[in-house]
Specification:
It is an enzyme of class 1 (oxidoreductase). With 164 residues, this protein is α+β, with helices and mostly antiparallel strands. It has five helices and five strands; from the N terminus they run ββαβββαααα. α2 packs across α5. Bound molecules: FE2/S2 (inorganic) cluster (2 copies).
Length: 164
Amino acid sequence: MSDETFRLLVNGAEVTVEADRDTPLLYALRNQLGLKGTRFGCGLGLCGSCNVVVDGRAVHSCDTPLWSVEGKEVVTVEGLGDTPLQRAMIDEQAAQCGYCVSGVVMTATALLARNSSPSETEVRQALDDNLCRCGAHNRMVRAVVKAARIEAARTEAAQTEAAR
Ligand code: FES
Ligand code: FES
């Protein structure tokens, strides 16, 4: 197979990648675009450590071929900036070795974008496919719930202020 040119929007910037059409998005992000925050775990769509957000949905970048993300919006952990979610992950000491964390953060980011106040059960369901070999899963769930509460309180305060 010969290389083709793919255009996508990564963390708000238009980028061009030349590669075989079946190249996993993960390889393009890490090896061609230098975005090493997205991790290679199983390479089989089973662990979630490679998760990124594509057009608002968390996907396994290890089994997402480049042809399928042509023209789409991709967000990696580098594109998030300083968010309540990342601060809550630190506050709850959710990271042990940290290997799974960027994938967890991206899955949770997609969840919070579509459901700003998820229940603990909903957070657990969303993170069910993100495996953590360090056993920090419960702390991560707590962090996501906490981040949602912080964001909700912030939104309420802003609305109260605007109504004055
Ligand atoms: S590395 Fe992609 S799901 Fe495990
Ligand atoms: S913190 Fe080590 S794998 Fe999750």
